[in-house]
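Project standup — Tuesday

K.O.: blocked on the structure for the chain from last sprint. Re-posting the sequence here as requested.
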Amino acid sequence: MNSLIIAPQWIGDAVMTQPLLRRLSARGERLVVGAVPWVAPVYRAMPQVDAVIEFPFQHGGLQFKARRSIARQVEGQFDTAYVLPNSLKSALLPFLANIPKRVGYLGEARVGLLTHRLKNPVNKPPMVAFYSALSGDRDGLADDQPRLQLPDDHIAAALSAQGLQRGSYYVFAPGAEYGPAKRWPAIHYTELARSLDAPVLLLGSGKEGALCDEIAGADPKQVVNLAGKTSLLDAFALIAAARAAVSNDSGLMHVAAAFGVPQVAVFGSSSPRHTPPLNDKAQVVWLKDDAAYQPPLDCAPCFERECPLGHTRCLVDITPERVAALLRG
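H.V.: unblocked you, prediction finished:
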């Protein structure tokens, strides 16, 4: 059976779909993933994926002509499509390609575009289980953990390019594209880097270059800013070989978890009950769950891009010393 996966448009969400693909592959489905260019590399780190089609789509807009063009190219090649995003436009291509079985959640008036529809959960469930349920399975969803893999020679080449040895450095991912209410303050990252006994690599997109420059500026010998200066797969390789990683709730947090890297994940406006790093070596800091923190964070999780109250206390009050102790512990 040939199946087309319509991928999410965020790196973290893409990582969290891996257990679904693992389930589909295990029952004999040949998987081709359609993904936008900035997410496609995630699926090249999943051995269950046979091929990746890069979609020329951008955030926003229906882009109907482009979807119809690709639909014509793939028509007749697939038995099933799994539509992972909840938008109407994401369900258009499988419909236009006349793929017989089209599976997805109800959303954005797309009833007629899908042949097999799941009801959206009332509350925010763990995202991995949300995606895995599209397989039709019900057993073990809560235990699914994403796993990414890269060839050893790819990791070795990425290390060699930076003059590094495996386990000789830390990785920080200080960005969070969603907004500042998910970003631990830059000064905290700077102070944490100064307290560590090994170099720190800063990873992220080109949009996060200025933020990473701010963090690296205080100690350029100890902290190296690689934001926007590596391919995404090379960034994955550097994460996979790190001693440990520190991040906000972001796509690279999920990447570190999927490679099984020891990590500390700092949460603010979002919730680790919804998008936790699924890694036995992960440690989460979220003041909402800290009974000793006063006054309690009744406002969390707000899931806002910017703090509605203007203080971002949920992040500012997490000290570098606390994160350093977790790294060393």
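K.O.: great, moving the ticket to review. The chain is about 30% helix and 15% strand. Residues 64-74 form the longest helix (11 residues).
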